[in-house]
């Protein structure tokens, strides 16, 4: 019986140390469960990932490379450098429940769709929601995934400030969509009604990207929590109606990402038609 040699795999980061490694928990568990004989070498690549770097790997006796996308808390500065358009979505709460905001884009450089999410909750309800509904709100706050609003109800100005701050960081935000029945005063946003046949398109697009391994949500635990609470019913016309599994569960961050994805898809279609008109 021939023994195969240990494979030398490089895990490359743009971020130094633990911020980049935290997202690899599932990957490391996969290696252990399948008893792969891999020797992992963690390195930081200061320059942009390049084809020259990849082509030089065989000469270094390296069998493969894994690129690590920045984590949810530390990745905004890196993603803001990408020369792409971002589209926003907001799932506004009726009064004092969880509110969610999202940015969505596609990067040809990374070959993937990217989704950044952020949650908001009023301070008066944070402790009750955390204990009663078992939602780790304060853990999300520590990870930079949630803002505790210093008001009895959700302050929509905090949501606007988040988008403003993201734009200041370098994100080219083209549009933000939300259901106006919960916030008509924000006339700068695009009306994004919650019709199931509209949301179904965004749901299907995210589903396909995720199954193809081309959907990056920066391993946000808040987003993972919301996705785990999503259930859906398929209609005869291949449309889907999605909903939360239990009344005390939350899917707001996923809802906001679907809104943002719908804005992205609609503008992608308009851009394609405009290019064809000029051709």
Structure explained in plain terms:
The chain is of the alpha/beta class. The termini are far apart. The protein is built from 10 helices and 12 strands. Mean pLDDT is 76; it is low at 15-22 and 46-51. The strands form 3 sheets. Strands 4, 5, 6, 7, 8, 9 and 10 form a 7-stranded mixed beta sheet that branches. It has helices at residues 18-21, 25-33, 51-55, 76-79, 123-132, 137-142, 156-168, 196-211, 221-228, 252-278; strands at 7-13, 38-44, 64-67, 85-91, 99-107, 112-122, 146-149, 172-178, 190-191, 215-216, 230-234, 240-244.
Question: Brief description of this entry?
Answer:
The protein has 279 residues and is an alpha/beta fold.
Total count of helical runs of at least 4 residues: 10
Radius of gyration: 21 Å
* Total DSSP E strands: 12
Tell me the span between the first and last alpha carbons: 62 Å
- Determine the strand fraction and express it as a percent band: 25-35%
**Helix/sheet category:** alpha/beta
Shape: globular
How many strands, which pairing sense, and closed or not: the largest β-sheet?
A: 7 strands, mixed
Q: What is the mean pLDDT?
A: 76
Return the string of H and E elements.
EHHEHEHEEEHHEHEEHEHEEH
Question: How much helix, percentage-wise, in residues?
Answer: 25-40%
Poorly predicted residue ranges: 15-22, 46-51
């Amino acid at each position: 019986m021939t023994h195969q040699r240990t494979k030398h795999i490089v895990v490359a980061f743009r971020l130094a140390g633990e911020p980049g490694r935290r997202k690899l928990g599932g990957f490391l568990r996969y290696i252990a469960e399948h008893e792969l004989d891999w020797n992992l070498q963690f390195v930081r690549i200061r320059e942009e990932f390049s084809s020259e770097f990849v082509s030089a790997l065989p000469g270094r006796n390296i069998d493969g490379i894994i690129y690590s996308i920045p984590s949810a808390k530390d990745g905004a500065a890196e993603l803001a450098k990408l020369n792409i358009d971002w589209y926003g979505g907001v799932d506004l709460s009726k009064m004092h429940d969880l509110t969610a905001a999202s940015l969505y884009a596609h990067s040809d450089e990374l070959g993937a769709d990217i989704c950044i999410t952020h949650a908001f909750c009023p301070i008066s309800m944070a402790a009750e929601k955390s204990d009663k509904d078992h939602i780790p709100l304060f853990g999300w706050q520590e990870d930079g995934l949630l803002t505790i609003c210093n008001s009895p109800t959700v302050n929509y100005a905090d949501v606007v400030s988040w988008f403003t701050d993201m734009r200041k960081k370098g994100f080219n935000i083209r549009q933000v969509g939300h259901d106006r029945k919960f916030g008509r005063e924000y006339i700068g946003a695009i009306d994004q009604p919650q019709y199931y046949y509209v949301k179904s398109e965004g749901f299907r697009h995210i589903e396909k990207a995720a199954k193809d391994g081309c959907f990056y949500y920066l391993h946000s635990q808040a987003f993972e929590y919301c996705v785990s609470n999503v259930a859906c019913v398929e209609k005869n016309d291949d449309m889907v109606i999605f909903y939360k599994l239990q009344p005390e569960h939350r899917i707001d961050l996923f809802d906001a990402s679907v809104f943002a994805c719908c804005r992205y898809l609609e503008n992608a279609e308009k851009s394609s038609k405009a290019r064809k008109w000029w051709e």
